[in-house]
Amino acid sequence: MNPGCQTQDTTTEPRVFATTRWSLILTSAQFENGGPMARDALAELCRTYWRPSFSFVCRRGYSPEDAQDLTQDFFVMVLQSRWLQKADENRGRFRSFLLASLQNFLGHAAEKKQARKRGGDLQFVSWDEWMAEAPSQFAIPLPGLESLPPERLFDLRWAATVVEQALGRLREECEAKGRLRLFETLSEYLAVERNEISCAQLAQTLGIAETMVKKQLHNLRQRYRWLLRDEVAHTVENPADVDDEIRHLCAVLAAET
Amino acid sequence: MSEKLARPPDSSSKRTDNPQTCGRCGATTRLGERICLSCLLHEGLENEGEPSEEVFAKVLEEAEVPDRQWRLGNYEILEEIGRGGMGVIYRARQRQSRRIVALKRVLSYHADSHEALVRFRREAEAAAQLDHPNILPIYEVGESEDGLPFFSMKFATGGSLRAAAPTLRDRPNECVRLIAKVARAIEYAHGQGILHRDLQPGNILLDSHGEAMVSDFGLAKWLAQNSDLTQSLTTFGTPGYIAPEQAESATGELTPAADVYSLGAVLFNLLAHRPPFVGENVLSVIRQAGANPAPKLRSVAPSLDRDLETICARCLERDPKARYQSAADLAEDLERWLEGRPIRARPVPIPARAWRWSRRNPVLAGAALVCFSLGGAVLWLLSEQHGRPQLPPPEKSIAVLPFQNLSQDKENAFFAEGVQDEILTNLAKVADLKVISRTSVMQYKDPAPRNLREIAQQLGVANLLEGSVQRTRDRVRVNAQLIDARDDTHLWAQSYDGDLKDVFAIQSQIARTIAEQLRAKLSAGAKAAIAQAPTNDLVANELYQKAIALEAQEGGNLLEAIKLLEQAVGRDPQFVRAHNALARLHVFLYESADHTPSRLRAAEASIEDASQIQPDAGEVHLVRARYFSRALHDYDRARAELALARRSLPNDPSVYEEAALLDRRQGRWAEAQQNYANAIELDPRNRSILENGAFTCSQVRRYAEAIRLAQRVLVLDPADDWARIFIAAQALHERAEPARWRTELDTVLARNRGAGSDYAADLFECALAQRDAAAGERALALIPPAGLPFYFGCIAPREWYTGYLARVFNHPEAARTAFLAAKAILEKQVRERPESGLSWSMLGVTKAALGEKEEAIAAGRRACDLWPVAKEPFWGPTTRRCLAAIYAWVGDKDQALEQLAAYLDQPSFIDYGGLKLDPAWDPLRGDPRFEALVARMAPDASKTTVSAIPEAALPRPQ
Q1: CA-CA distances (angstroms) from residue A11 to A93, A238, A244, B47?
Q2: Cβ distance B1 to A21 under 8 Å?
């Protein structure tokens, strides 16, 4: 697969996302030292998707403290080593690639721990800050959550993160236009059947016409969909894989519920 | 990508500890009302959405809801939920924590000085320090950009007492309970040096459990300051509740008595459905409150209890010094009233006190029903005939009707019943749902076309589940449909096909789906309990179903049921429900028919088996409670087990029924009635609960309530003899009028000769009250040789009745012969059961009849020592009553009267009719002290009481 071709292809498909972060990262990885841009992009992706990794490590039976250390070490390794060049058949999706790497990493966790003792205590981010800044809004209250295999939990957390990201971006865009209240009031209905929504009630709450409520809901929904797809697109190498990735995550949720 | 985006955002989704299932996609990753992770993800597959931020922003701006009008300090305003003189109340969201709060913004505050503002803040912050379960917590006191103060507080989901008042109508107990709690909260605040100053129904709020929470402590005066009287009136908005001294001088020094006044006014309003003073305008109300004494509660609501009138009057005294001196004193009296103890407030002369208490409805004056005008009574009865048309049923309520058996084999009826039973049992574990119990729904077994709306109304539910089961060799098909019976809409229907062994999974699935459909929250515990199959052995389950059907059947063969259950646990030793049923039956038999050590051991073994398998299951705790209560009479341990059972069996009427029984045995009469009421709510068509509830009410001399419950038995079955006779008997108990009881007895006995022995004791008692020797003889002929419980409450052999009848109608020789025979039997009885107080009592009475004075008194006293009233509030008074009779019969009037007077006030089998007409007390008649006791028990002559309802108002058998 030639990543270069993929980015070029997008010019002929304007509806598909121009560049994905993951494809950029992979492309850069082909070159010695990557590029600062790619490194930043990777760091950003890692910061966004730290929680699935952390959950995975915890579920593998490590204490929360050890899991914190291991997750930190893992990301430091990802960012500092030539990790990307080892990218294998899983590389098409950032998610599967990260998971495979994490599994591999934990397989050598004992050595890593020794190395950690000897070497400097490198930190990917300040853990406290991380935890404080990023409380997951999706508590995923599944009945059998405790007994879920680590890989499933990883995917489940991943799905939650994707949705949180999209909603967060939508919220920020609304806030930037002074329409946070509109977002707060209507965002609960983004995925609700039309006939279940009392537009009259919402119109009254917001003090606008019912037709305007419908229009705004449609607008928010359209934008949300795009943002969600964009979010997913950043994690796949080939933008055409967005649907497949979403379907995969949906299937994960369906399997667990 | 900006750095900002690396932070997982503060999304709009709600966090909740209670997972719900999404009605749209079925995923349990649903969070809160509308947010479903799975659906949100699916959205991405719908279409590609709007790629341009500009286009999106342009449409966004068309909505004229700019955020700048919407924020207050750290809060996002969600909606306005109230507006009053003092300002506006919003539902709002705290920005960081996302917590939903109520936010009060003071609009009319005239902050003309910085100092005033500082003082307001200080007071509001002081109020925010209050930490009490019945005080609404203030989270933050702040100030908006325009300098006006606001404060945020807990969002009370249950609304205000003002809004809830109509639902409290005719529930004086509940009103008193709420105000007692509020008074305790006010007591606490007073202890912290904070007066409320504006207590009124609008700022007593209710949480989701209906518990009261007082809001707006100490803030009223700020809202009224710097304004003249008329302005302050509009600010107060609720002048009917402020103390006169407060209205006269808004700035004057107030004492806790001002809050006591307001509490009294709120209670008055709840009970009488209007505040004490009403007028055309605010000023006239305030003037009246200052100039006139408050009206008597019963001048507005005559049916209410006199003590409630006294309590309200004491709060509403114009002179603050004449009121309760503290909120604690008021709380104390309200609690006393709830417990059926004498209240402390005494506006009436002291000598009247003792008898007044006995006249008072001892437990509660629930009492909108105690006294009626004749017309009112008839109306009331008619309205009761159609079941319970009072409040609309709760939204989240359901009855699971019997499933139709579509299998060829009629034997499979038990299988269909099992499917229904399991779904019902599963749903009953959901605390958020009201689920009608098995006994009540089984009455709708007939699959003929039925009026679902009527059934739902009779059961007090909004929804019904109907279904059918078809079983072939090893396949099963279950159809189920959920109906909102209020408008006959079909909410959900589904057909399940599966292997026979999948039937438990299907049942769990149906229960879960129903809970989701009704948006009931499922706790993790309930979820796990629903998922667990009671047994995987279908044959064992069928044996179990057959056994409980036998148990439920009147006169069903319980030994046969035990055999079936033993086979069931033989097949599946892990079948906890079957072990429980075994234990339940053994305990019942031990208690009622087979009081042998081997039966007790069998009960213990079954409990042990169940406990081994599932030590923490609610059903296991329940059966242990029964064992402690009924077999060992260890009420404290029984109570502890019940408390554990209740946690996981929120919808099990047996938990309440068992608790009521315990309460009754321990003399907790008010609680017993509440527990019966709860049991009836969940099992509205269970005769035995209704009968026990009626009986208990009669015992505490709440005749109206007793009749009302018996009336409900008649609604279930208009031909029910027991209910007809019970209702008629109340006229004797309450008013010493035996004629109607006698007529009803004669009618029933003429129609149904087989019922003779059931009502022999009734006829005997009635005949004696009427001094009708021939009727007495007739009754005697109906008494089986083993005897019957006489009206003393003790089982007496037939010889005893013979002796008593002969004694009353002056045949001393015949009496002596019969009593001697009775004595021999009773002596044997006390040798066998020396721990039974009642046997000793009966022996004492017999010896007294035979003139064996010393021995008679010794036996009577022994009974009282065995079962003192304090330890046995239920049976204790009966042993005292027997002792009084013994003294009367052996000629010791002083002692007899002392015993009688000492326990007349206790709820017991004695009542006005018994005292006035029973020949047992003949030796005392004419003594002015005895006549005074009779007068003390007499009903209020000025009232027509419920037991005097005309015959025609009762439904007749078809």
Answers
A1: 21, 13, 21, 20
A2: yes
Q: How many Cβ atoms sit within 10 Å of the Cβ of residue A178?
A: 16
Q: Using an 8 Å Cβ cutoff, are B652 and B433 in contact?
A: no
The residues near A103 (Cβ < 8 Å, ≥ 6 apart) are none
> How far is the C-alpha of B818 from the C-alpha of A156, rounded, in Å?
85
Residues of B whose CB is below 8 A from A247: 45
How many helices (H) and strands (E) chain A has is answered by 13, 0
Assembly ipTM: 0.84
Q: Kind of pairing, strands B404-405 and B212-214?
A: unpaired
User: For the segment B545-572, what is each residue's pLDDT rounded down to a tens digit?
Assistant: 889 888 887 777 888 999 999 999 999 9
Structure tokens at B583: 């234990």
Tell me what pLDDT residue B381 has: 27
DSSP string for residues in B380-395: HHHHHTTS--SSPPPS
What pLDDT digit, counting tens, does each position of B406-422 carry?
877 776 777 888 888 88
pTM: 0.48
CB atoms within 10 A of CB A145: 17
Q: Return the residue of A nearest to B3 by Cα.
A: A44
Distance in Å, alpha carbon of B151 to nearest chain A alpha carbon: 20
Q: Residue B260 carries which side chain, given as an amino acid letter?
A: V
CB within 8 Å of chain A, chain B residues 518-547: 524, 527-528, 531
State how far the Cα of B696 lies from the Cα of A166, in Å rounded to an integer: 63
The alpha carbon of residue B761 and the mean position of all alpha carbons in its chain are separated, in whole angstroms, by 31
- Looking at the DSSP bridge assignments, the partners of residue B72 are B75
Average pLDDT, chain A: 74
| pLDDT tier at B449, thresholds 50, 70, 90 | low
Which tokens belong to B847?
Answer: 């010896």
Contact B723, B713 (CB under 8 A): yes
State how far residue B82 is from chain A, nearest Cα, in angstroms: 13
Angle at B911 between CA B905 and CA B913, to 5 degrees: 150
Facing residue for A188 by CB, picked from B34, B44, B53: B34
Residue with the two structure tokens 């006229």: B731
Q: Mapping DSSP to helix (H, G, I), strand (E, B) and coil, where does residue B642 land?
A: helix
Could you tell me the two tokens for B429? 């574990």
User: What stretch of H or E contains A203?
Assistant: helix A199-206
Strand B71-72 to B75-84 pairing = antiparallel
3-state secondary structure of B92: strand
Residue B650, CA distances (Å) to A81, A107, B440, B627 in order: 58, 48, 17, 20
Angle at B347 between CA B320 and CA B357, to 5 degrees: 135
More confident residue, B251 or B446: B446
**Strands B204-206, B397-400: parallel, antiparallel or unpaired by DSSP?**
unpaired
Run of H or E residues at B212: strand B212-214
d(CA A30, CA B106): 65
Residue B429 to residue B531: CA distance in whole angstroms: 11
Q: What is the pLDDT of residue B1?
A: 31
**For the segment A49-62, what is each residue's pLDDT rounded down to a tens digit?**
888 888 888 888 88
To the nearest 10°, report the CA torsion of A175, A181, A187, A193: -140
Verify whether the Cβ–Cβ distance A139 to B17 is below 8 Å: yes
Cβ atoms < 10 Å from Cβ of B567: 16
Q: Is B539 helix (H, G, I), strand (E, B) or coil?
A: helix
- Residue A67's identity, in one-letter code, is A
Q: Which of the pair, B78 or B574, is modelled with greater confidence?
A: B574
* Chain B stretch 81-100, residues whose beta carbon is closer than 8 A to a beta carbon of chain A: 93
Q: Supply B358's token pair.
A: 């006995």
Q: Which two tokens stand for residue B340?
A: 């059926």
Helices (H) and strands (E) in chain B, counts: 42, 18
Extract the tokens encoding B551: 């148990």
pLDDT at B582 over 60: yes
Which H or E run includes B467?
strand B463-471
